[in-house]
Write a structure and sequence with these properties.
Distance between the termini: 26 Å
Shape: globular
Order of helices and strands: HEEEEHHEH
Helix content: 40-55%
Number of strands: 5
Radius of gyration: 12 Å
Structural class: alpha+beta
Amino acid sequence: MSDIVNEAVVVLNEKMAGENIGGTAKFEIEGEGSVMIDDNGARAGDGDADVTLSADVETFQGIMSGDTNATAAFMSGTLKLDGDMGLAMKLAAALA
């Protein structure tokens, strides 16, 4: 796994501690790999998900650091979404 994915797993587990999103989400980070998130936390991996969010490294890191608003990234097209919009909104609220 890439350092970006490994760092994302750590950050997401910190941010998502105690959160139940009620489904499975996947972050696809261009050129780096994927992170799966569910009610058990975050882990590196690639599998089926209720919602898949795709972004380049810069956008993803901005969302993780809080410098980039996930909704604004989606509206501008730098964050792409495939699947359950409601779950994506829950995830965005948990990461804010």
